Protein 1
Amino acid sequence: MSEAREFKYIGQSTIRPDGFDKVTGRANYGADLSLPGMIWGKILRSPHAHAMIKRLDTSRAEAFPGVLAVATHSDFPSVTDQAIESGEGSLTLLDLARNVLAKDKVLYHGHAVVAIAAKTSAIAEQALALIDIEYEVLKPVMDVREAMAAGAPILHPDMFTQGLAEKPTTASNVATRLEYKMGDIEAGFKDAEVVVEREFYTPTAHQGYIEPHACTVRYEKDGQSMIWCSTQGHFDVRASTAKLLGLDLGKLKVIASEIGGGFGGKTTVYLEPVALILSRKSGRPVKMIMDRDEVFKATGPGSATRSWVKIGARKDGTITAMQGRLAYEAGAFKGSPVMMGCMTAFTPYAVSNMYIEGFDVVVNKAKVAAYRAPGAPQAEFAVEMLVNELAVKLGRDPIDLRLQNAAKEGTQTIYGPKFKRVGLVECLEAARDSKHYQQALAANQGRGVAAGFWFNVGGQSSVHINMNPDGTGTIVEGSPDIGGSRASMQMMAAEAMGIEPGRLKPIIGDTENVAFSAGTGGSRTTFATGMAVIEAAEDVVAQMKQRAASMWNVTAEQVEWVDGVALNTAGEDRLSLAEICAGADRTGGQISGRGNINARGAGPSFAVHLCDVEVDKETGKVDVVRYTAVQDAGKAIHPKYVEGQYQGGAVQGIGWALNEEYIYGADGLLENAGFLDYRIPVASDLPMIDAIIVEVPNKFHPYGVRGVGESGIIPPLAAVGYAVENAIGVPVTDLPLSPPRVFNLIQGKG
Amino acid sequence: MAKLHITTSINGEATEFLCEPHETLLDVLRNDLQMTGTKEGCGSGDCGACSVTVDGRLTCACLVLGVEAAGREIGTIEGIGGSDKLSVIQEKFLEHAALQCGICTPGLVVSTQALLEQNPNPTEAEARYFLAGNLCRCTGYDKIIRAVLDAAATMRGAA
């Protein structure tokens, strides 16, 4: 693409096409659909963190008046051990089946055991209390250190560590060991004159979407079933549910409701297969909605991690070696994002010698799910804290030191490819030149700088655009709109077709009326689905030119398309898009365009954040007083929603850094499963978040787009963490920096 | 358990419903009256997604029983704006891109209206503290606060 390209609609902040419904309450989310004859499903969850199910008898519950169906793990047809596509997360079918309804053993507080459907939710609740269940309580394993220690209680007696040089003979809580390396790490440290190293801890944190998981399903006797649910990927819900229940894909329609936040946490299934079993057994539509308590206990969280990182540099600032060891909690089943942690940790730097190893470790907590740039924030926390320390030891400005070592076009990454054009240098320069960075700090204040890298993904997207006889059209896409992406789709199609965005209505098709599209995750929607939209729009334009040509008796090559109008280069004729649509019945029928792609060339998005905090040294309370988020968008299609991604990512990261953590008792029970005690940031906690959009176009997208959804949550952990370290003058190693922890650090009791 | 017959007013319209004694006003609105604009995020008064007004006072509908609506004036998101037009607050939320997923938006619109009725000229800090009971996980609040302050300025200018 040409960098100097001028756009007619791209780059404006239009009103989102679904906006009216969202501000009036008319938009329908996961819990908003009711069907005639519908009944309610509820789940009995484990009161223990780790226990064998010795006896399970549901007969009293089944006999309770108003109860219409009961489901347990035994209702799943025998599932096999195969990997399944599940958004950004990873889970085998066997594990998924055991996660949605436990088999023989419960592995975390809140693990689903039995589901009941009854005429009302109150009856279902009452019936749950009538389930007779006997547990043999086992010792829980709540941290990677405990889990990796010799003699630790084993969660899965059939799990042997993958990736070791010698095949292990005993079961382990370590599912996988992996490593990435480049150059010669020992030589790199020999070359170093200054070395920094530290161990770090990040807690279990939840995505914290405001809408709980919810679905309404209907199983039909002819096998034509329907699921309405809140999900980031309805095609993935279809695949997982169909496999668990042994259904053909073509017999299961999944409709994506509006989605009230996901951040990666709605890329897998919890309720949907269970609800469909209850519907099959009862012959009635079934609605299931999680309580907030269930959301915290049994869905989501992001991995808690322990990491050790060591960085060496010469006195001139050249970083010569970066080494790390990351251990990530997977929760009850294998599949933490430790691989992505290893791949991203050192990637903002062009350094010859790198070595990093990772461990995927099971513990007695809910299976982790993808959480916005899964795995990267925890790894980058460790790296960026140390790069800031390194800058101090070298007497260098932290942005200047990063600029000296920044990854750029041609830099070899540890995970394989060499970078094409990337925008880290531009982001660092924008941060350095910002007013924020020039501002002096006041007493008790500190400043942190941190960078972050995320790959972004492409993948399959399908779109069709159906034109109407009056020249309006519908864009049917398959990517749930979680943050305003319909506005971007509308603008990209309008740009390609040369018509006003308002004439095109974007909708999210269900699994039957649009072809397979990968879920909304990996910051892929505006990039990949956007490319499919552009392709479909270009297809419409090509057909428009053909229709005009046939009306004028010229060839399509003799027709030019300018601002939504066909021009006959062989004469004076012109036909607008609306005129061609109106005459479509006479030129071969109605016009629809298609874009079915498997997008490659997703452009990485780097982010650089600046954070100023003020610490109350008497209480340990930390206030963020100024914050700037800089990030490369490639090309911002809708600048306000791009800024919104930066600001939202920053604030989620601020919450992770300052307050958010799962708190467990010695018995492994979760003690803060609610928004009162698991405190996400509220409006009064925060200043305005300055967003700076850097645009280094991604040449693999027609308009230059890079995904922007995830990188913004990577830098805040260290930007905030180092700002606190800078303010109190004491090394920070553990998150969150809640008042007691900061107070103890100040008192020298860290 | 026998259902109770309740007579109330919702968005100025006389309304009757039957509900169980334990049902919350939120359950009644959403499940019995099919008014799903009021959202449920927590059921414990911590997130503000179910913000409504009861006799003009901002309340979480999940913390009020359905039976308590008897004889009261209930205000919900469905009563804000018209069938084909938006209130200034709603327009400003759209203009400032003050929503992403939108699940918290009905509650925030109801809360913002309550704020501006009490205080037509809030400072940024006043707006932030008044709206601290409405959780938003997507936006980081920046654009919400800008929309609220702009709506306040516009409404003062229009008054």
Note: Residues 88-158 of chain B form a domain with the DNA polymerase; domain 1 fold (CATH 1.10.150.120).
Protein 2
Amino acid sequence: MSLDAFLDALKTDRSLSDNVVAWHVAPGRNGSFAPFPDGVPSALRDVLARRGIARLYSHQAETCVHASAGRDTLIVTPTASGKSLSYNLPVLSSMLTEDADRRPTALYLFPTKALSQDQVAELHGLASELGDAIGCHTYDGDTPPDERRIARDRCDILVTNPYMLHVGILPNHARWVSFFRRLRWIVVDELHHYKGVFGSSVANVFRRLVRIARHHGGSPTFIACSATIHEPAAHFRRLTGRNPVVVDRNGAPAAERHHVFYNPPVMVPALGIRARAVDHVRKLTRRLMEQDVPSIVFGRSRSRVEVVTKYLRDAAAELGMPESKVATYRGGYLPALRREIEQGLRGGAIRMVAATNALELGVDIGALDAVVMMGYPGTIASYFQQAGRAGRRSGLSLSLLVGTSVPLDQFILTHPERVLAGVSESPVINPDNPVLLAQHVKCAAFELPFRRGDGFGDSPDAAELLRWLASEGGVLLERGDKYHWMADAYPAQDVSLDFVDPDSFIVLDTKDDTSLGMVARSDAATTIHEHAIYQHQGEQYHVEKLDWDGRRAYATRAAVDWYTDAETETKVAVLTEDERVETVAAIEGRGDVHVTTLATVFKRIRFYTHETLDSGNIALPPEELDTTAMWFALSEELVMRARLREGTRAGAVPGIAHLLRGLAPIFVRCSPADVRGFGEFEHDHFERPVIMLMDSVRGGVGFAETFFAKRRELVLAARDALAKCPCELGCPSCIGLNRGGRESKEAAGVVLDLLAAWSGTVRTASEETWEARS
Amino acid sequence: MGSPFLDRLRRLGVAPDGRLAAAGAPAPRPSVAVAAPAAEGGAPPVAGLEREGPSWVLTRRVSIYTRHGAAPLNPIDGLPTWAAAASRDPRFHDIPLEAWRFVDTETTSLHGGAGVWVFLVGIGRYVDGEFVVRQHLLAGPHLESDFLDAVRREIEDGRALVSFHGKSFDAPRIDDRFRLQGLEAVCRGRPHLDLIHPVKRHARNLWGDVRLRTVEERWLGFHREDDLPGAECPAQYFAWQRGGRHRLAEVFLHNHLDIVSLAALARRLLPVYGGAADIGCPVAAGMDRYEGGDPLGGLALMRAARPDVRVHRPLWVRACRAALAAGDLDLGRRLFRQVEADHPLDTGVAALRRRIDRLTARISQVPTRRQLAKERPKPHT
């Protein structure tokens, strides 16, 4: 087999094998099967038998038994293990065993519209073959009015997304009475997808949903599916407020899979600059093409994928292969084109596909033998989802990760065991973020009056919030023993599930006034100030004018060989100290902070050489943010021991903040933009050097709490990453560029060592006096 | 205020109405009257409002011999038949005028959704030489089930609904409230003459809009003075509920006039379906009858159409086709001349022209053998 030849080359060819930093073989596994549970009607068994399903994987049968008994069930198994049948089975069984007028209903939720399409196709197929008039309807923004009415009146299975549920269905539940009265199932696919602001909002939407179902007499059971994550049950509980039965013994068979981690060599040792990942991907994919191995290349951005596609096409030409054997697969492709590519892959007409990460979920592009990832996809769940693209048929498969130089990639490449254990970071959510809570309690009060003393999920603050909205807010009216909505508004319309702060700027092309993109207000001052270079799909645009109040920026396409980088001054005021542990090394704590960020100057920097051409001032209002943070306020002993006051060694403080932020995604499922790092040598509040990690969302969605709980691991990971970083002067993979070079890198190492070593030692009174004496 | 949670909310820029101020800016405090004790024990908010069991009702009587603006209110024969045509619902044939219920509601928002209250339901009916309007007020959100009971009795006492825009606005809102209380819907399925639809068919091309205000000015000769705009009605209800100063009496008057206008409009417009009105469009009425199952009556009405009306193209084209299909080439040509004059470049109109030319040519031709065969007397068998 041709993949064998490629694997041999990877082992024996020194130009490749020298860069392989980890090689792990996951052995193949036989399936574990179970018969259909008793409750599955024969009609359903017949339909499945016709599709070649005569028995179930053990986890499918297990799920069916638990769910049918009315237990909330969480399925935690890898990609391609037949999850959708796991939930379709109990749902359809229950529908077939009841009369049509008392037939239970099911709500299927997928995080986005695109994700639901393949699932719906399968479900429609099953429902129509069953022929028992099970009404299965999709209800989203694209559903025409007539079909909406039909869905409302005759729906047994409703497929929708959280956005539609939030703004369309729940506020109008009077039109859905018959659906909610019979509601028995809430199916939530891709549970790990519900994280950050979105997850926190959806948790509140679930609180509203269950309230409404109960009001109409429905008592729904949740069935959820998740990729393998840390503490999946805890995430389920935070999201739904319930404790699930966890089904995590995967019964699906698997083929042997090789996981190979590949780190391009260091080219400039002083700066830790490595060979570009894309060049090595080019080399590796060419070998794959020579061996005719059907493969997919994942890239982190569309522009990179386009570059890779060009390389693949060039390689095809050199090898005398037709260009049509190479395809690109991007978001926004129509189903027909998707089917065409899938068909091409199955039939062998297409051998190489380049795709963005956006396509890792829910889209079935068929079976391949090798997956090449250009850069770590950000989370372990994504890694396995992408790796799962290969080896669906049988035999051997390969997952090849080619690292880039960002801190996270380098950490993963030096700690492959973290990924290969197969357990993903836990998603962090905080349904009780006060801003989100206030908004969703409003939506809930609009939907149904609250009784005095009613809770809202398990929020501890709901009662107080309701009193406030009634007494001062003038949107609720307390009458009888209830709070009634009494205002001329439709609150769900003003509440976004994706942003706490929906305030953003639109960037317009001066040429034809078309929209180039949106920029969050918090980033506006640093990315679209006047004279900034705004990057859009690999092209540069010069910002001519920024209309701050009108929330618009006007930019002109400019072919320049420089970009701009803004400098900011950040002040962080500590408002509350919700937790405080004082050790010999530091005050470790977390609480509320007020952050003021002022963009001061911007520099024009030339591409490749990074030389500064010139600079200019930015005169825009400061950005204010109230959020939560966790911190280390370094003790005097530590400052002395690390000699932070000497030379440029103080640069270690912001440097460590940079490093911690870069490593954050190892511990929680988040993107770098969700977290901000901050380091200041003389911080007003503590009168000590402070290293902080902050939630970048107003009110916080739980990152600070999580990082505080995991601060020990975070420090150890940072110490490790720093020690293993081959650069000499500090680089983007560790403490960042221009933070004081060799001295501050060395100092950062000492600080992290001491934080790790001393932090277990909680300071006692006698030590305090020792400090005072010395 | 001393509560850590509320302090935090304020700091995060959440205003007491739950809205989000721009980050960092202090949230504005809305000026809201402090909630007064529940309204049920207090004096009626509007003079003449009376208790009926647990419900508040205001009853006003209008003699059928008075005029609403320039429009008469007195019933005439034929209204049920014409209503059947105008609503295209044959059930109206058997429903006497006394069993019609003229309905208009006031709600706390135009947005819709479960948080919108129907706080005033006015229902008018003909009884013993009078037009009686009874307006039911929701005395407080906690008293809704009593209020809905009263509304249900009022509606179920009649057999049909008459409204203006009620099929898509008032009726679903009322039904939603019933469903939210766990009760059967009361409006759905009932014969319902929503006058906005015939008004659209009759007058869409004459006026810029088809609001009830416009209908009153153009057809009823009724002009409102100092009328409270509909958009300000919710605020008056909120003010009363919170114990503040309110103009609820004006809301009642606004609602009352809407209902009397409904009756006057029905009385004034429906006769066009019998060829006995000086307003409206006989072609529109004719098509309502034609498409509603009375083709002969419809064509007869259309023949009476004045030639000087501005033409609503789709309706006219349909009417023209109907005339041709019925073999009335003369009427077809007449309707066509009007639609052609107004829409000379329209492709649908061009198609119609070809069809008329074809038919005209066929008629002027020597009769075909088949036509002759048809005309030849059948041999006795």
Note: Residues 501-560 of chain A form one domain.
